[in-house]
Amino acid sequence: MEISARDGVGRALVWFRRDLRSADHPALAHALRDARQVWCAFVLDKAILEGLPPDDRRVAFIRASLVDLDQQLAALSAGRARLIVRHANAADEIPRLAGELGVDAVYCHHDDDPAALARDARVRERLAAQGRAMRTFKDHVIFERDEVLTGARKAYGVFTPYKNAWLKALHARPGVLDDCGSDVDGTPLARAPASVWRGAAAVPELEEVGFATGPATPRDDPGLRPGSSGGQALLDDFLDRIDNYDATRDFPARPGPSHLGIHLRFGTLSLRRLVALASQRIEGGSRGAQTWLSELIWRDFYHQVLFHHPHVVGHAYRADCEDIRWEHGAQADAHFTAWCEGRTGYPLVDAGMRQLGATGYMHNRLRMVTASFLTKHLGVSWQRGEAWFARHLNDFELASNNGGWQWAASTGCDAQPWFRIFNPVTQSERFDPQGVFIRRWVPELGDLAGDAIHAPWKAGPVELAAAGVTLGRDYPHPIVDHAVAREKTLARFGSRGSGSPVVSEAG
Ligand SMILES: Cc1cc2nc3c(=O)[nH]c(=O)nc-3n(C[C@H](O)[C@H](O)[C@H](O)COP(=O)(O)OP(=O)(O)OC[C@H]3O[C@@H](n4cnc5c(N)ncnc54)[C@H](O)[C@@H]3O)c2cc1C
């Protein structure tokens, strides 16, 4: 990446947010090029943290990643510089810290989530009132905002043409993948004055900021591997498998996906480097890498949807879906609770929900199946499911989570057609044919043989007894009947007045 120095920046503060690495970090690289003295800071933002439960795994991930980043900065500066970490309201703290350090400019990356845009606007205003600049750079996506638009200069609402335009843009501007390097000249990185430096340890313990280590994950789960080093270990593992990604990615019992979502969310790895790696593999003929790149393009797609249509936060993308009458009341609440706890009586749905609860990860196929089940079998609004995922997913990302939920609920752009309703039993038979994944997460069904694992209510009494399962005692009866639920959903969506459907059932 070509970085030209700017005049008039003697001192700079780099504000880390969702970019917890030093390698290929545009804001850091620009600050080091522009300024004579550079400090680095992260704010454990009370405005965000106060809404989280004390054992939130993501906070432990962030803390450990900050320790990793602190070490990276120390290594870049011969041990001189440390990360300044504050526990405060970021919108107040960054201007205050900028004042304490007397910097000319604050450097950071774009964050287009609506709340972050509002926060950054406040910070920019406060800095400007102090006579300081705020310099921001793209980092979190490959193409942002208005960089990939239709011929009519509008945002894309359909993925495939967006993807084609995205690939064309990459071809035309290969420089967007240029790396700022890991070995930038760290000479300007400075030791913070004692008045700013408030303690021996740069990064506070979790307990000091009101959190505790998250719940332990099961012994056979790899758990979260924080920091750039953790992300690199996952990436090395995935690169051995990437060529088979297209063939394995849909089968939750197989090691198909990369598990890099949380590293992309918190920027512990550089997205540009991942796209460059995938592109190299594609040049070598890898179909797996091609499919994987498509997934990364979905990520950019949903970010531009959120940027251009911020109303999707809380509202359907499609105006005609705003008046869908979702279920409310005691039964809907009971259904929602059963879904959250993995007690719906549909083994694949329950396995996915239990994986989420126990590890904070859920396989993509199961995100689709469970989201479809909540909205189209239980008739519960996508907003309730979206909020549950937001609370529990380690890799929670507003743009992708909202996009995924609105896709499954058929309220979004380029969504699953509303009359296509996943059959959870068929999905189970196709994507977990031997029931390996189900047996892992729903152990009470472990001894069921053959197809009964996909639909225990279809098993005969002898078969159930041989497996030690009494339905209603060891495992629930299905909380809804698929055929009945399907009819209700068709009626629910049909009464929106969008015409009569060509009814089809998705496998
Ligand atoms: C209802 C629902 C909710 C979802 N919520 C989130 C979320 O909060 N955060 C999130 O990152 N993804 C979300 N996804 C998309 C996808 O399920 C996850 O990105 C993926 O499962 C993460 O696992 P991985 O890192 O092993 O992915 P891989 O399969 O290895 O993919 C690599 C990366 O590509 C991106 N990606 C993959 N699939 C998608 C997709 N469909 N949409 C957008 N980006 C994608 C992610 O950054 C992912 O880490 C959701 C999907 C659905 C259907």
Model description:
45% of the residues lie in helices and 7% in strands. The protein has 507 residues and is of the alpha/beta class. The strands form two sheets. Strands 3-2-1-4-5 form a five-stranded parallel beta sheet, with helices on both faces. A two-stranded parallel sheet has the order 6-7. Helix 5 (114-129) links the parallel strand 4 (105-109) and strand 5. The two termini are 46 Å apart. Bound molecules: flavin-adenine dinucleotide. Flavin-adenine dinucleotide (FAD) binds next to helix 9, helix 11, helix 14 and helix 16.
What would you report as the Rg, rounded to the nearest angstrom?
24 Å
Q: What percent of the residues sit in helical stretches (DSSP H or I)?
A: 40-55%
Overall pLDDT confidence: 94
The hetero compounds bound to this protein are: flavin-adenine dinucleotide
Strand order of the largest sheet: 3-2-1-4-5
Strand content: 5-15%
Q: Strand-and-helix sequence, N→C? A: EHEHHEHEHEHHHHHHHHHHHEHHHHE
C-alpha end-to-end distance: 46 Å
What class, by secondary structure content?
alpha/beta
Shape: globular
**Major β-sheet profile:** 5 strands, parallel
| Total count of strands | 7
DSSP helix count?
20
Are there runs of 5+ residues with pLDDT below 50, and where? 498-505
